[in-house]
TrEMBL record:
Protein name: Metalloendopeptidase
Residues binding Zn(2+): 152, 156, 162
Enzyme class: hydrolase
Catalytic residues (positions): 153
Transmembrane feature ranges: none
Originating organism: Champsocephalus esox (pike icefish)
Length: 253
């Protein structure tokens, strides 16, 4: 356990702002991702377990050791493997990598002998641990997961949480508690996490969409800024880029 903790660099995880347009639901035919109507449900809103692993907030996996330290990936490099079940999704996974590597110093390399690495597995939906938790770390992707969904999960694995859980979120969004599915209200609770002193981002790829966990098709999260649609999965926002580059000390060499 201690070996895993020392191999990963300690992380400072925080939230980012959002301004969502629509979430893409199609597979990429290139690096460009199509933008469709906002989803009333999402591949990121799992309601059960993923391979007997506890899921919270719809797509965040909880380590068996609840006190496990969430770390950054050493040298801003994330080694990975893709399971045989997902070979037909390899293009989408690499497109998601490119969404991140094009705007940050973070790199993705096929796993060789590294102790810590991401293992892309077929799943019920899209889900990931937050940060480097050590060893072969599962990241799940279902056929319904778009390139943007996969990118969202990779960013979780890099160390970022959901934007809508920030402690300052009530200035920017309203949570429609009466519209949330029974038993899912905890997914919308404020979490005391590091914000890296960056403003709230309604445009973040890490923000919930308007209808996540809706029990009747009514909005569960609404932006307080007129005309701003939250929950986009087509690109990293400027603040997403700033947060990742700050977290991994890009350009500080």
């Amino acid at each position: 356990m201690w070996l895993l903790v020392f191999i990963c660099m300690l992380s400072v995880v925080g939230g980012v702002p959002i301004n969502a347009t629509q979430e893409d639901t199609s597979h990429a035919t290139g690096v460009l991702v199509s933008m469709l109507e906002p989803q009333r449900s999402s591949s990121e809103t799992l309601e059960g377990l993923e391979d007997d692993v506890i899921v919270q907030e719809g797509d965040i996996l909880i380590p068996e050791d609840r006190n496990a330290v969430q770390n950054l990936w050493s040298d801003a490099v994330m080694p990975y493997t893709i399971s045989q079940e997902l070979t037909d999704r390899a293009f989408d996974i690499h497109a998601a990598f490119k969404m991140i590597s094009d705007v940050t110093c973070i790199r993705f390399t096929p796993h060789t002998t590294e102790l810590n690495y991401i293992e892309f597995r077929n799943g019920k939906g899209c889900s990931s641990y937050v940060g480097c938790v050590g060893g072969a770390q599962a990241l799940y992707s279902a056929p319904s997961c778009s390139v943007g969904n996969v990118c969202h999960e990779i960013i979780h694995a890099l160390g970022l949480h959901h934007e809508h859980n920030r402690r300052d979120r009530d200035q920017y969004i309203s949570v429609e508690w009466s519209n949330i599915m029974p038993g899912k209200r905890s997914n919308f609770e404020v979490k005391q996490r590091d914000t890296q002193n960056l403003p709230y981002d309604l445009h973040s790829i890490m923000h919930y969409g308007e209808y996540y966990f809706s029990q009747d098709g009514s909005p569960t999260v609404l932006s307080k800024s007129s005309g701003v649609q939250i929950g986009q999965r087509s690109h990293l926002s400027e603040l997403d880029v700033l947060r990742l580059n700050s977290l991994y000390h890009c350009g500080n060499d």
